[in-house]
Write a structure and sequence with these properties.
nucleotide-binding, Rossmann fold, 22% strand, alpha/beta, 4-stranded antiparallel sheet, 8 helices, ABC_transporter_ATP-bind, 269 residues, 6-stranded mixed sheet, binds adenosine-5'-triphosphate
Length: 269
Amino acid sequence: MTTAPVPLDAPKISVRHVGKRFDNGFVALGDVSLDVEDNEFVTIVGPSGCGKSTLLNILAGLEEPSGGEALVDGVPVDGPGPERGVIFQQYALFPWLTVRQNIEFGLRTTRVAKAERRRRVEHYLDLVGLTAFADELPKTLSGGMKQRCAIARAYAVHPEILLMDEPFGAVDALTRVRLQEQLLATWSQERRTVVFITHDVDEAVFLANRVVVMAAGPGRIQEIVEVDLPYPRTEELRLSPEFTALRNRVWSAVYHQGATPSGAPPTTS
Ligand SMILES: Nc1ncnc2c1ncn2[C@@H]1O[C@H](COP(=O)(O)OP(=O)(O)OP(=O)(O)O)[C@@H](O)[C@H]1O
């Protein structure tokens, strides 16, 4: 059997008419199509149950679509792969391994030489601010620290694509802002393609090149909002009229579906 050549101009990720009907007959995704270019940062927002996680799981190769296909570099996704790092809301650390060992774990299954593994682990420990806790077990860490450890573990493998499902959902507001800044700093230094699910409209706009707004019944793309704000994104930018306008536009696309995500609605006075 011959494999079709990968087109040079293929988007990094291509979702083509993907549908998902679960075994109980529930249709979680209707007909979803989306291209994500190399090095893009795309966030996905939408009401609970509109199929965000289902779509991400299909990209991760953890679920199979029941119609259409998902492609990475022009090749159909057929299970998980090391080029796609997945980060969930729950940290999923190994409790019996130290922070350092948890970060190193993913690297053991790659062909990275020992010296390079060590270098990378120290680099990502430093990047997420956990060097001082490297020899601690996860049970001694706060929720935000555990999540930073999970993020370092995913980054250390150098996946070309990061698939993130509400990764900062369980951390306090201040840690969340720091994690957002760290993620953007890493993304701009090391360039990855990121697909990031969130319920937080501010977070969606702050991080993304494009915000994909989904709707439910069945899950589908309602609107795509281009975020033409410059990087690096700063705290001042969050207060700017341009940011507020985009935030309100995304909010309105979600809000006018008749369901509300978490977070405060825009003031209308
Ligand atoms: N294995 C399954 N079998 C049947 N239905 C499922 C299954 N997994 C998810 N669903 C349903 O599919 C729909 C989409 O779920 P999904 O988790 O993708 O939504 P979501 O947009 O990520 O929601 P949330 O924002 O609450 O995390 C939901 O109605 C959910 O109940």
